[in-house]
Design brief:
By secondary structure, the protein is an alpha+beta fold. It has a single domain, classed as Metal Transport, Frataxin, Chain A (2-Layer Sandwich), CATH 3.30.920. The protein has a 3-stranded antiparallel beta sheet. Pfam families: HicA_toxin.
């Protein structure tokens, strides 16, 4: 999955872009206290990293 696809999936689930630090974008949710870091690199996100991000976001 590409970064843009993941960002769209997060935004559809209610997450919004908060800030960027280095090569990672951070997303927040109005109803959840945690932040979800998303690497901002070229190419596809590795499967394990993708699963971890989706799990942190409560999507998977």
């Amino acid at each position: 999955m590409k970064i843009k696809e993941l960002v769209k999936k997060l935004e559809k689930a209610g997450w919004y872009y908060s800030y960027q630090r280095g090569s990672h974008m951070y997303f927040k949710h109005k109803d959840k206290p945690n932040k979800v870091p998303v690497p901002n690199h070229k190419g596809d996100i590795p499967k394990g990293t993708l699963n971890a991000i989706l799990k942190q976001a409560g999507i998977k």
